[in-house]
Amino acid sequence: MPLTLWLSLAAICAMGAMSPGPSLALVLRHTLGGGRFTGVTAAIFHAFGVGFYALLTVWGLGALIAGFPLLFQLITWFGAAYLAWLGIKALRAGRAGALEPSAVATNPSQAAKEGVLVALGNPKLILFFVALLSQFVTPEMSGAAKAIIVLTAMIIDGGWYVLVAVVLSHSQILPWLQQRAHWINRITGVLLIALALRVVAGPLV
Questions:
Q1: CA dist 143 to 61, 125, 139, 146, 166, Å?
Q2: Domain boundaries, the chain
Q3: What keywords are assigned to this protein (predicted)?
């Protein structure tokens, strides 16, 4: 995979990971309720769940493109519509959302279990990945290239939420973020809508 294409993949995966939602709420809750290590544990196990869905998506996309191009196109457009809906939802969220703390006492084993379950219990991730990865997967793509895509999605997701856990474990950071939550939501919303338009425009490969 060319470096420029990988950088585009990394940027899109990062934007997907950074969008506010249940995953951010999960890491926030376990960080505030159990400390830095517990939050980091939730982040890492969430990345395992994301990697599983990314693997399923990459395996299925190549066959779908080759055998059912019209169905693939329809699913891609549906995925783009989902991204746009997420963007509109973020724009309308204002100050509310995943940055609201709801800390309860928790521990690393609970964080690990919930980290995986939040990822696997969200089948909308499949739509998200279809929309994202449709820009990069081709029927003739090698196994190594597919592995790079899956590992990139996992590492960026895990790395982002580990960073979130580390930053939020400093209690003075959270109030600062909450005061600016409306700007975080607006920026995320604009980026998600832009990504939806990019998906509709066609693949990068």
A1: 13, 22, 11, 5, 34
A2: 3-201
A3: Cell membrane, Membrane, Transmembrane, Transmembrane helix
Q: What pLDDT is attached to residue 154?
A: 93
Contact in structure between 31 and 164 (CB atoms under 8 Å): yes
Q: Distances in Å between the alpha carbon of 133 and those of 2, 16, 35, 82, 97?
A: 15, 11, 34, 14, 27
Among 149, 118, 129, CA closest to 41: 118
CA distance 30 to 138: 38
How high is the pLDDT of residue 33?
77
Distance of CA 131 to the CA centre of its chain: 12
Chain segment 37-77, per-residue pLDDT in tens: 998 999 999 999 999 888 888 887 766 766 777 877 777 77
Residues 150 and 205: their CA atoms lie apart, in Å, by: 17
CB 195 within 8 A of CB 89: no
